[in-house]
Model the fold of this input.
Amino acid sequence: MNPIKRVSVVSTGTVQIRPQHVRSDGTPALWWLLTSRRWTEPRPINAYLIEHADGSVLFDTGQARASVTDPGYFPKGLTGLLNRRLAQFDIGPDQTLTALLAGIGHDIADVHTAVLSHMHVDHIGGLPELTHADIVVSQTEWQALDRPLAELNGLMRRHVMLPGLRRRPVTPQPTDDPSLAPFTAAHDLFGDGSLVLLPTPGHTAGSLSLLVRRPGFAPLLLVGDVTFDVHVMDEGHVPGLGRRHQLRDTTIKINALRTTYPDLVILPAHDPSAARRLAAAERRGTGRAGDTAQER
Done:
C-alpha cells in the first residue's frame, strides 16, 4: 500500500545568491561575502508538499513576503549588512504559502506537519500561517537559537518563536537499517517507512533531509540547502557557506545512498531544475529508473 498520494512543489518567490555560495571556491565565506560583485540568476525558494494518508506534510515553508516589504524584518548593523550581501529576494503579493497552496488545490489548514530542514529565514517564512500544524525541527537546530551570535549565523529567534506555534523538536535515533546506509541515525515521521528524516549537517549543525519512499515511484531526497545545485553534488563539490568538513561528509553519504537507490531524485530548496525533476519523477515510476537518473 502506498500512503503517499502526491508530492508537489511551490516556490515562495526567488533569490539571487553569490556564485561562491552555490559552489565553494575554497575562499573563506566572509571574504567572498564582502568582496563578490556577482549574483546568480534568480533561483526558486522551494517548499515541498507531501500528501500522506495521515495528513499533508510540508518540507520547509519558504520565505515570508514581509522580508521584502518590512524594513525592520532583518536586523541592523553587521548582521543586516551580511544579509544584504548574502541574498536578494523577489517575492510577489501572490507568493505567500497560503496563496501558493491554494493555487495547486490545497487549503493550508489541511497541513498536518511542517518539517524544517533548518531555520534560516528562507525556510521558516510560512510559520505564521502554520500555527495549526506540528512544526518538526531537529533538536540540534532548535538549541542553536539560544547560542551566541545566532542572528549572525542566520537564525532569527523572533521569526521562529511565534505565539501558538506547536514546535516538535526531534533527535534522529541510531539505526542499522541497511536501506538507509551509510546513514546510521534516522527519524521515521509516521512509523511506516515512507517519510524518513536523516541528519545532514553542514549548512547548519542541525540540518535535516527527508527521504520519501513509495512503491512504483523513484525515491526522493529533499535536502534543503545541503546543496544548491544537484549537479554540484553529483561532482562531490559543496556550497561555500557552512561547515565545510560536515558538508563534505554529508555529500559523500548522500551520494553513497545512491548505491541503494540508483534512481534517487535529489531535490534541493534552491535548485532551478528541482521542479522539472520532481515532475518527471511524478510522471514515471521506478520502472524507468534509467530515465529518472538522467534527470538529475
